[in-house]
Amino acid sequence: METTNFKIVSSNSNVEWTGRKVTGAHNGTIGIKEGNFILNGGKVKGGNIVINTSTIKILDVTDPATNEQFAGHLASDDFFSIEKFPTASFDILCVKELSSDTYYLEGNLTIKDISHVVGFEASVANNENAITLSGKLIIDRTKYDIRFRSGNFFKDLGDTLIYNDFELDFNISAKAL
To answer: Gene3D superfamilies in the record, alphabetically (predicted)?
Structure first.
């Protein structure tokens, strides 16, 4: 069986995030810096994704001043500490084939230099020289020292509470090297 390395094409890939709070939700995008997938016999066997945390954008806040303030808060130590930790990553450790085009990927997710094993289902479309991988990863932010307005750490937050889980919906394109 032939092993093929596929390099992520950042410009053709997107990651959308959603964070929820008692009074609603916020959403946006974040960019992929680099990464790859390893296929053996046309099946995913490994890989990694590096996220550029400084590319986080907020899409639902349209007022420029409010958007800039919110982006600054996400960049701060209350959230992602972007100056200290300019990247986050996911390194695939284990792959389970669920069907011909669906896999369960498990690996180390590292945010703010804190790593935890996470897993999620991903759909893969493979056309020999290019693949796309899509899915949704739900992350408990408190495991990565992102505790701002978490009910696990602060009392009486009322309608200012921010839920611990946030979602990353991704659609990643990669080309064979």
So the answer is: Lipid/polyisoprenoid-binding, YceI-like (2.40.128.110)
| Cβ pair 2, 39 in contact under 8 A | no
Cα pseudo-dihedral 96, 98, 99, 100, rounded to 10:
-20
The CATH superfamily label for domain 3-176 reads Lipid/polyisoprenoid-binding, YceI-like (2.40.128.110)
Q: Report yes or no on whether pTM surpasses 0.85.
A: yes
